[in-house]
User: Fold this.
Amino acid sequence: MTRNGLIALVAGVLIAIAAGLWISELVIGASEEAQETASSGKARVGGPFTLVNQDGETVSEETFRGKYMLIYFGFTFCPDVCPTELGVMSAALDRLGGRAEKVQPIFITIDPERDTPEVMARYVKLFNPRLVGLTGTPEQIADVAKAYHVFYRKAQDESSSEYTMDHSSIVFLMGPDGEYLKLFPPQTPPDKMAETIESYIE
Assistant:
């Protein structure tokens, strides 16, 4: 092996070790938070927010008190993941029948630059007549995403002026008092989501 090859190999190993340590730190941090949650009985997910719905009305978390909230963060220009998850939410609510009236589905954009109330109004009605779309200023979106530990960032295409958004894809179930109850990872089947929601409603 050449000297340059050896240097490259060592550098690669060091990067791999660093990445492993970073991932381990994330796992340990998540474990510690889970232990704290278990001891306190409350997860540090969610909190106060002020946003604008698809009708241009200012709303807050208090607007939805008394209902379970099924919340998803995404954006209307999302090609596949967001429509899929919103479709799952809608299908799960359909499976709940009349009990779905106790659940408020909510779609919060992480792309407020393009997702105006008008855009959100056209988008949400494609999935469920009761789906509420929320947008706001970049600062308001950053605050609510931080409260729910949602990752997002703009991914710019250097070859054009267009961009997409990288983001975590999680559906949150919040209780009537705004307390965190459950999260649903990507590709959760509608039947499973409906069954879980029903267990809390009952």
Observations:
- The chain has five helices and nine strands.
- Confidence is low (pLDDT under 50) at residues 1-40.
